[in-house]
């Protein structure tokens, strides 16, 4: 994406440049950086979960019910990837509502991590690092695969602001996108798709604002309304799926039947992969059909 961006004649790329402060006045935004001062009509915060734009210009208070803690370690020499190198998600009893992931990478490497709701970590008093290491070395589904694996780094922690609250994604002369706007899917923990979607709608709003020369909070709030309308139902379904994780026997039954039934397997994969089909997973009729008819 950066390579493509460099081709634009009206874009300047600053690298190894740290933002130290952001100030909004009635007629401009001033950004203080390690490479000098930038003055603009508005600013877009596409700078991740720990966004300085959000910290300086919007509320950045963490709500543990809408926040997940994650750990990641890159490994090599992990055994027995699937033939298609599919992403693997493990919904294990000790970390519900949450999951452990194994993302295959080239040359036998893997991105391995664990994520869990911050509120659940606090309520259950979970030490996520110890739990992560223990599961890799003792869980029947994982221990043989990681017996000869080598961790390439110490566990690295990440905070994941989840979507679903009516927080501000804009204000006077600023917009937030992606993780900075708390658009991470609450169930899957995936944020890239929504980051790209929010970038598209932010670009449309910026064009509209420049055409009107209007960068006010009221004008930019149109972006919030568009994003909320687009994602509200999707986030609602994801939170319902999180609540279903409280019933491990149900998950085990569904996955077990899917492994024996090609059509159900395909339906389950599509429901997890496509937002418009995800609502299947919170429909009572879906579970009735799986439990009593498949």
Task: Tell me how many strands there are.
Answer: 12
Count of alpha/pi helices? 9
Q: Note the gap between the termini.
A: 44 Å
Globally, the shape reads globular
The helix fraction, in percent, is 25-40%
From the alpha carbons, calculate the radius of gyration and give it in angstroms.
Answer: 22 Å
On the 0 to 100 scale, the average pLDDT is 90
Q: Major sheet: size, sense and barrel closure? A: 6 strands, antiparallel
Order of helices and strands: HEEEEHEEEEHHEEEEHHHHH
- Look at the helices and sheets and give the structural class: alpha+beta
The poorly predicted ranges are none
Estimate what percentage of residues fall within beta strands. Answer: 15-25%
Question: Could you give a quick summary of the protein structure above?
Answer:
By secondary structure, the chain is α+β, with helices and mostly antiparallel strands. Helix content is 38%, strand content 21%. A hairpin with a 2-residue loop joins strand 11 and strand 12.
List the main descriptive attributes of the protein structure presented here:
single chain, 294 residues, alpha+beta, 6-stranded antiparallel beta sheet, 3-stranded antiparallel beta sheet, globular
Provide an overview of this structure.
With 294 residues, this protein is an alpha+beta fold. 38% of the residues lie in helices and 21% in strands. The chain is built from 9 helices and 12 strands. It has helices spanning 2-6, 52-57, 118-124, 128-138, 192-212, 217-244, 248-260, 262-273, 284-292; strands at 19-24, 29-33, 36-40, 43-45, 67-76, 88-90, 98-104, 109-117, 150-151, 156-161, 170-171, 174-176. The strands form 3 sheets. Strands 5, 6, 7, 8, 9 and 10 form a 6-stranded antiparallel β-sheet that branches. Strand 1 (19-24) and strand 2 (29-33) form a beta hairpin.
């Amino acid at each position: 994406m950066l390579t493509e961006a460099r081709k634009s004649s009206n874009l300047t790329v600053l690298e190894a440049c740290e933002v130290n402060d952001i100030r909004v006045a009635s007629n401009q935004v001033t950004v203080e950086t390690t490479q000098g001062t930038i003055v603009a009509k508005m600013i877009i915060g596409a700078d991740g979960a720990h966004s300085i734009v959000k910290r300086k210009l919007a509320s950045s208070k963490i709500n543990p019910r809408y926040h997940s803690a994650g750990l990641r370690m890159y490994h090599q020499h992990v055994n027995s990837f699937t033939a298609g190198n599919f992403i693997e998600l493990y919904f294990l009893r000790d970390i519900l509502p949450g999951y452990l992931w194994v993302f295959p990478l080239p040359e036998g490497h893997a991105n391995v991590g664990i994520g869990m709701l911050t509120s659940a970590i606090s309520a259950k008093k979970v030490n996520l690092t110890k739990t992560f290491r223990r599961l890799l070395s003792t869980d029947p589904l994982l221990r043989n695969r990681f017996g000869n694996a080598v961790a390439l780094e110490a566990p690295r922690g990440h905070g994941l602001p989840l979507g679903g609250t009516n927080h501000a994604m804009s204000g006077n002369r600023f917009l937030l996108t992606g993780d900075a706007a708390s658009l991470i899917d609450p169930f899957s923990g995936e944020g890239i798709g929504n980051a790209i979607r929010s970038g598209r709608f932010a670009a449309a709003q910026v064009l509209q604002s420049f055409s009107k020369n209007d960068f006010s909070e009221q004008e930019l709030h149109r972006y919030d309304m568009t994003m909320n309308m687009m994602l509200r139902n999707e986030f609602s379904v994801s939170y319902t799926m999180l609540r279903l994780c409280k019933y491990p026997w149900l998950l085990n039954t569904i996955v077990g039947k899917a492994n024996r039934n090609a059509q159900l397997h395909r339906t389950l994969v599509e429901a997890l992969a496509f937002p418009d089909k995800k609502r299947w997973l919170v429909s009572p009729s879906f579970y009735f059909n799986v439990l009593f008819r498949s």
